[in-house]
S1 family peptidase (Streptomyces cathayae), 392 residues
Amino acid sequence: MRRTRLTHACVAALLMIGSWTAAGTLPASASDTAGSAGSAARADSAPASAALLQAMQRDFGLSPARAEARLAAEQRAADLETEALEAAGSAYGGAWFDAKSEKLTVAVTSDADASTVRDLRSSGAAVRVVEHSARQLDAAKARLDRLDAPSGVSSWSVDPTANTVVVNVVEGERADNDVRRFLSEAREAGPVTVRTVEAAAETFAAGTVGGDPYYTGNVRCSIGFSVHGGFVTAGHCGGVGGQVRGWDGSYIGNFQGSSFPGDDYAWVNVGSGWWTVPVVLGWGTVSDQLVRGSNEAPVGASICRSGSTTHWHCGRVLAKNETVNYSQGAVHQMTKTSVCAEPGDSGGSFISGDQAQGVTSGGWGNCSGGGETWFQPINEILGRYGLTLHTA
């Protein structure tokens, strides 16, 4: 592999290794939650590179100081979320980051121990009393996962801020008999709220085009994150054994593991002159971003995406563990974001601060008019295949 600039070459190699979360991709070729496999300790230096701070200033309208303060607050919230789950136990009702107060809000049921509530508040979290525990909501959502969803139902997930399971129905489809039947069965499963979305969820595959992508057959996708021995990406981009070529057409490796639908993740081995680097490409819009770990950002936190079609865009984490009903079948345990994406971004990187979050699966809309994009969490992928994230 040759490239005029070493940095760009490293990024291209990275695209084949990681968990870059770009935008969803069409089922070009079809496409357990592991804790912190491959996660590295955070650096004691700045909370993020200039690349991410610049992107947040652009997409969120923040000053440099406010962008840095936001990232620092989100890191504290991510650490506190894990502690809150352990402290609240069966009374835990979920948690989310509030951008206005820059605090984590922890929901607990009325039977939460008074000392636990005091400890949570003293740690800096806001506490909200709710009716349903996270376990109850997760159980209701799991019952929906066993239902046969019609195409008019886009997705469903637990919304901790509303303390309910939210079912997203495509605009104009709510009166459809199959949709009405699904909603009736969903309400029997537990607390459900129905919301309307503009379009159905779809994967974002693309035909062969230029850029810094990777190719399999006539499909272009984006590299997610580098792992030792290869990179992770979206499962709908290729099946096991499929050959992968780089931006210059040279052979990189083959899909060693792939799952879609049900899941949407895969990993590709790297060789033949290609190598892995712990970097997410900035595409000249921002400087390249180093990857230092994979600590999971809470709902409400800011997050950015890199992909070979639309490059850098930022938004917020909207929901976790969402089931997305693609035309090829349902995909589980997805994270929904307000970040836009377009065909060819599939498999690309989602990152929060310097922490890898996941790889782009699909969504709706585009980067001109806006939309939403889902990603498959990186730690689940690492755990599924026994991979180790390549970190700086």
